[in-house]
Amino acid sequence: MEFLDLKTQQKRFRKPLEKRINKILDHGAYIMGPEVFELEQKLADYCGVKHAISCSSGTDALLIPLMAWEVGPGDAVFTTPFTYVATAEVISILGATPVFVDVYESTYNIDCDKLEIEINKVIDDGKLKPKAIIPVDLFGLPARYRLIDKIAKKYNLKVIEDAAQSFGGTIRDKKVGMFGDVAATSFYPAKPLGCYGDGGAIFTNDDNLAEECKAIRIHGTKKDKYNSEMIGLNGRLDSIQAAVLLEKLSFFDEELERRIEVDKYYRKYLNNAQHHPKEYQSAHALFSIVLGSNSKRNDLVERLSKNKIPSVIYYKFPIHLMEAFSYLGYKENDLDVSEKLSKTIVSLPMHPYLETTDIDKIIEVLKG
Length: 368
Known about the structure:
This protein is an alpha/beta fold. It has two domains: about 5-100 and about 110-250, Type I PLP-dependent aspartate aminotransferase-like (Major domain) (Aspartate Aminotransferase, domain 2, 3-Layer(aba) Sandwich), CATH 3.40.640; about 250-365, Aspartate Aminotransferase, domain 1 (Alpha-Beta Complex). Helices cover about 40% and strands about 15% of the residues. The longest helix is centred in the first third of the chain and has 22 residues, at about 5-25.
């Protein structure tokens, strides 16, 4: 049994992919070739936004808009500690300060009540200027953007939707990529729409922001590639990765439907999974359950392993307690929901090619 079955997936599109790759070998535009621009148009159309700007990774997709907004020292950016480190890393790289907000116990996404409390703490303290919010769509489930946008407008903050895991998700039929001022996704191979290396994309309806992001990803150049008009980075997407994504995008909705079916089948037997609010559709990047204690999780992981069933812990360490972020001064019990989740959560196999017989085997072990 595979935790993520890319081998089976590859069989269904290997021939058309090889054809696309051969075209790239013929035209020789290995970086930012025609496939990249074709992909950007199709991504924008899929999400219903004006601009999709491809880039070299999901991390750069978060970093580039922050650079465009000139986020830096003295600025506070609010985000969750219960996610992959890249979300907070991009804030620190620019010299800004991550301010961590705990998550809902039910959805694992940023708690909007606590978000406003933390914003007001920063304002009252007066040492930092609130600048932006980066909510995370954890495990594929979109955060509460209607409330987040309301809070952002109240305090004049920018919003970046961290959609690294949620491409394909929706809220009331509005697709991920449309929320906040800008959205950032990842095409890392394990994502619902993944390439065969690193890749990412930025989504926005803001024409000026789109132009800034396009320039930043190519060393800050606009008119002349040898004359940088701003500080940028090397954030371009490879043509071969674009080719992989173009082929996968052609059957992405079919795979998403299958992920939904797998999730529903799991939930017939399990009631300790991430809560999905009504009218919210997850992209089902992961299927995670919460156990009653750390020892129960450890016991389950061991039993799954003995039965040759893979599992992964996302996330073993909340960011605010990582050594790299010790300079911020957080300590244990500061963000108790995130800390509890990190000790009790475990992710089970989730992919479009998972058979019901495989899930039955997993359930049997869980019940044992």
